[in-house]
Amino acid sequence: MNPAAPPDLSALYSAHHGWLQGWLRHKLGSGNDAADVAQDTFLRLLQRRDCPQAALRTPRAYLTRIAQGLVIDHYRRRDVEQAYLQALAFHPEHTAPSPEQRLLIIETLLRLDTALDALKPRARQAFLLAQLEGLTGPAIAARLDVSLATVERDLASAWRACYRVYFP
């Protein structure tokens, strides 16, 4: 643990790190992934200015809550990465991006996925219909049974979310 960590956080780490890592190993099915998520869980706590009282009163519940969010992020990242690698497999090998470029692309895809996930379901669906299926505004309006103005608003909202990924 960080030598500058508050004593309460050091004690929390010592007392619960092993338990959390075991819980995560069971949840994730991988010791390496469990170790990473356990460390990220405590890193989240360490990044706070002080150790929250909830962490001291009910440490396992508090750690579990943080870890569950990180597990969701872990699965989301894995799914996005697998989808990207599958799409990449259809391209000639000589056009494949470098490992560094792949990492940047995957990070961007994750940020876009998170941004789109935060949209209202209809706005996300309209955006995906436009981008993945190439539907026009009127076709999306007909498919979703909404007005063209609503589709245009939803698409503008989705584009703003995507824009914020690049220009926060």
**DSSP summary: helix tally:** 8
How far the N terminus sits from the C terminus, by CA atoms, comes to 32 Å
> How many distinct domains?
2
Please give the largest β-sheet: none
Q: Provide the structure class.
A: mainly alpha
Rg, Å, rounded: 21 Å
Write the layout of secondary structure elements.
Blueprint: H1 7-28, H2 31-47, H3 53-57, H4 59-88, H5 99-117, H6 121-132, H7 137-144, H8 148-166
Helix pairs in contact: 1-2, 1-4, 2-4, 4-5, 5-8, 6-7, 6-8, 7-8
Supply database-style keywords.
168 residues; mainly alpha; Arc Repressor Mutant, subunit A; 79% helix
What does this structure look like?
- 15% of the residues are buried.
- The chain has eight helices and no strands.
- By secondary structure, the chain is an all-alpha fold.
- It has two domains: 1-95, no CATH class; 97-168, Winged helix-like DNA-binding domain superfamily/Winged helix DNA-binding domain (Arc Repressor Mutant, subunit A).
How would you summarize this macromolecular structure in one to three sentences?
This protein folds into two domains: 1-95, no CATH class; 97-168, Arc Repressor Mutant, subunit A. The protein is built from eight helices and no strands.
